[in-house]
UniProtKB/TrEMBL annotation, chains A, B:
Protein name: LacI family DNA-binding transcriptional regulator
Residue ranges annotated for the HTH lacI-type domain, each copy included: 9-65
UniProt entry keywords in alphabetical sequence: DNA-binding, Transcription, Transcription regulation
PROSITE patterns noted in UniProt: HTH_LACI_1, HTH_LACI_2
GO molecular function annotation: DNA binding
UniProt keyword Transcription regulation, yes or no: yes
Listed InterPro entries: HTH_LacI, LacI/GalR-like_sensor, Lambda_DNA-bd_dom_sf, Peripla_BP_I
Pfam families, A to Z: LacI, Peripla_BP_3
Organism: Actinomycetospora chlora
Record keyword Transcription regulation present: yes
Length: 355, 355
DNA sequence: CTGTTAGCGCTTTCAC
DNA sequence: GTGAAAGCGCTAACAG
């Protein structure tokens, strides 16, 4: 006589308790399948399962059925409101489709990003959503390309949020247009000397934003020599550092465009610490419109992206294995002018110098 | 002759390609196990795996080995900085231990919370971390208790962040003490009529915060009749609604304690809309110290909790299946007084009335 | 060191 | 309808 195993009850236990075959128990517990089990039996099985506190083993199910309902989500940092917003949308869609979400935080490490995609593949996820722009590195691009191709070959879907230089569905924020709108607006407000707090130019997103800004400003007749670009990490500290650099360098700029709101937050802190008044001494604009921006005083101008919608769309693209090629879905970027940007006249006093 | 399956390569494929047995291939690919495989063979196997773009099947592995390296994290809303902060800490620990994190967003639905725990159990996760206070509902408590007991019986660990009225490891924020500190500070600043923007009292966290506040204020000699408590949803809108109610009711309070920063955000917005100046007309205090609070103007007083550390600790407790009973780890709450709270004299003009 | 052999728990033909 | 049996891909004893 065998001693009862310690672990949780299995389907076999349930079947035995209900006096039916394994197959029948499985059918009763998975209504979706073939023709149903007789009501009487079904109830008996359900009761037995309940009594035994049966919890199906998702791994066994996945192995036997060759199906899973999990998705992977890769992001840099969940406390960054940008990614949190996207994650919320993506998770909402996954939830609606009954899919479990596995989240990988890369903290901006390409290796970790690759590692997560591999792990997700091992988990045989249905779909993976990659947020944050790609890394401009041939090794990375090739490796990631292979992973994704393999994933696809195995029947999985995936989508990017932001450019990735790799084939795949993309939710593409209007980085260029948004930044261009910022540039035009600043020039229209009379600004003739501009500064940009940029991120590492290895990030496609950064390049697009800076590019769009510079081109638009030039198109307005302001020479690119009047634009001072400082590249710092794509973080709050980076923004702080950029502001410091600009101020220390005695920049004559009257307006500062930060390529992300988080950077703007850091820059604003540095400005405040130096006694530089916004917008009187310097106009400031961010990008993304994270919730905090409108609450600051003065409220900060920025480019609004519907983060949640972007996350939703990306997850849908990744999950819907429809025919046809890869789709690129634009995510409109809308300039939101707030009190942090003001008009200057030609004689405006430049910011900078010692605080 | 069989046609090659379409799916991804299996271990058997790798073994065949390398001319070794299944077991050997498995050993070569899992260095952790028994004594190693001869270098020559190992390299051959590794190469074959690489050539075939072999991706281990985590489900098969879990099923055969009876081991997983996944953890579940339950939270209400990832865009809420409170949960994002905790999640970051929890995910960091999971990452260090090589565990994959599955995240469930409940949006404050007890049913969904239960559902996630069930799903995590089906996934045979090693540990689950439950954030957000428990729901004061007997049905919920019993059901959740059973799920967790079953999970534990199956060898899994779990931990709560905040009180849960259920046995288990707990990371316990100093809600009572923190709120008490707020109460004392306000009384010391001369406030004699206090208002509280509270959340649903079914949330343990809310009860502890309000309780701690009220008791401390009374202990300072201010009668509880001088404290006006308004319960609204535990959200930004709830904070807005609470402020509206207080103002419309012609509250004579000179200070407002919001049981969470997110509620404070809503309340502040309503106050600003009504022309109530902080802190001149009304002092405001929040709870949690989400990053935004110190950036507002005036910077908002609040009670600091080290969210990330809380998340880390919780994940560690859930993962470390050490002997002994359940542990309760306090998370210190530290009052942070900022410019949103000011001294009033006895003749202070009460806020309220039509804006 | 390496190969053989059982399963892990479940879904799924295929018969009845 | 329901049962029997064959795996899903892998790990883990056992033997050699």
């Amino acid at each position: 006589m065998r001693i009862r195993r310690d672990g949780p009850a299995t389907l076999a236990d349930v079947a035995r308790a209900a006096g039916v075959s394994l197959a029948t128990a499985s059918r009763a517990l998975n209504p979706g399948g073939q023709r149903a089990v007789r009501v009487e039996l079904r109830e008996r099985i359900l009761r037995a399962a309940d009594d035994l506190r049966y919890v199906p083993n998702a791994h066994a199910r996945a192995l036997a059925g060759g199906t899973t309902t999990t998705v992977g989500l890769v992001l840099h940092d969940i406390t960054d409101p940008y990614f949190a917003g996207i994650a919320r949308g993506a998770m909402a869609v996954a939830g609606d489709r009954g899919a479990l979400v596995m989240v990988g935080s890369t903290f901006r490490s390409p290796e970790r990003e690759l590692e997560f995609v591999r792990t997700f593949r091992a988990q045989r996820v249905d779909a993976v959503v990659l947020t944050g722009s790609g890394f401009e590195d041939d090794g990375y691009r090739e490796a990631m390309g292979e992973e994704l191709a393999g994933h696809r070959r195995a029947g999985g879907g995936y989508a990017f949020v932001s450019e990735h230089d790799l084939p795949g569905h993309v939710v593409l924020p209007g980085n260029g247009e948004g930044a261009a709108a910022v540039g035009r607006a600043l020039v229209e407000l009379g600004h003739r000397r501009l500064a940009v707090a940029g991120g590492p130019s290895s990030l496609t997103t950064v390049r697009h934003r800076i590019g769009g800004f510079v081109r638009a400003v030039e198109a307005c007749g302001v020479p690119s020599a009047a634009i001072e670009v400082v590249d710092r990490p794509f973080s709050e500290d980076g923004g702080r550092a950029a502001a410091r650099e600009l101020l220390d360098g005695g920049s004559g700029a009257t307006a500062l465009f930060c390529v992300s709101d988080v950077m703007a937050l850091g820059a604003l802190e540095e400005l405040a610490a130096r006694g530089v008044t916004v917008p009187d001494d310097l106009s400031v604009v961010g990008f993304n419109d994270i919730p905090t921006m409108r609450r600051l005083s003065p409220p900060v101008s920025t480019v609004r992206l519907d983060l949640e919608a972007m996350g939703r769309t990306a997850m849908e693209l990744a999950l819907d294995r429809d025919a046809g090629g890869f789709r690129t879905v634009p995510a409109p970027a809308e300039l939101v002018l707030r009190a942090s940007t003001a008009r200057v006249d030609a004689a405006a006093r430049p910011a900078g110098g010692r605080g």
